[in-house]
Design goal:
GO cellular component, one term: cytosol
Structural class: alpha/beta
Number of domains: 2
Low-confidence stretches: none
Radius of gyration: 21 Å
Pfam family, one: Peptidase_M90
Protein name: Protein MtfA
Number of strands: 6
Strand order of the largest sheet: 1-2-6-5
Mean pLDDT: 90
GO molecular function: aminopeptidase activity; metallopeptidase activity
Length: about 270
Amino acid sequence: MGPLLIALVTLLVIGLLVSGPFITERRRRKIRARPFPPAWRAILERRVPYVHRLPADLRRQLEQHIQVFIAEKPFIGCDGQEIDDEVRVTIAAQACLLILNRKPDYFPKLSQVLVYPGAFIVERVRAEPSGILQEERNALSGESWSNGQVVLSWDDTLQGAAVDNDGRNVVIHEFAHQLDQQKGHANGAPYLGNRDRYPRWSQVLSYEFAMLQQRSMSGEPPVLLSYYGATNPAEFFAVASEVFFEQPAAMATLHPALYDELRQLYRVDPVAW
C-alpha cells in the first residue's frame, strides 16, 4: 500500500470517527422533534403515575428521550411475552428518568431489552469456601448484563411503576446498573463527569454502604434502604437510586450527604417535584 493510499485511508477513518457522533445526534434531534404520540401519552398516564410529579419541562424532556430510546433499543419478548407499545413505553419512561438533564447518550452499551412475563430463572455456579462448585437457581425480577442486555420481569415492571413511592423499582435499579457498567464493570462508581468528584463520592457512598452492612448484620429491620443494597457497592448504588427517585424527601432527611451525591449525579432534585 503506497503512502498516498495510506493517507487517504487514514483520512477516511478519521472522517468516519468524527462524523459518526454528529450523524447520530442529528438523527436523534429529528426524533425528539416529532410530536409525542397521543397513544403513548395515554400509556404514561395509565401505567407510569410518576410522570405526574414532573415539572412540565422535564416531562417534555422525558417524552423526547422515550422516543429516542424506543427508536434505538430493540425489545425482545421471552417465554411468550408479547412486545407492544405498552411494554416499550412503560419501560422506556422509567429508564429515561435516569438521564434527565444529563448528556443524552441513551445507555450507549445497551443493545437490547429482554422482557419475561414474570420472574425468570437464572442458573449460576457458585464456589463454596471449600472449593466445591455449587449450582444455584434463582428467580429474578431483573438483571443488567455488562454485555449490553437488560432483562426484566413485566409483572415486576408494572408493579414498580404503579407504586411510585415505596423505594422499589426494578427498571430504575437495572438501568442504574447500566450507568455503572458503561465503563465495563459495575462497582458503584458510575461516570460522574468530573474526576474531582470521585473522592467525595467514594467517601460518602463507602460510609453509607458500611452503615447499611452493619445494620443488616444487627438483625434490625431495614430503614428506607433495602438490605439488598448491602450485597456489594454496585447493588448499593442501584438500591440508593431507587430510593432517590421514589422516596426523595425521606432520603434527604435520613441520608442528606447520599442524597446530595445522587442529586449531583442525576442532575435533578426530586424533593422539589
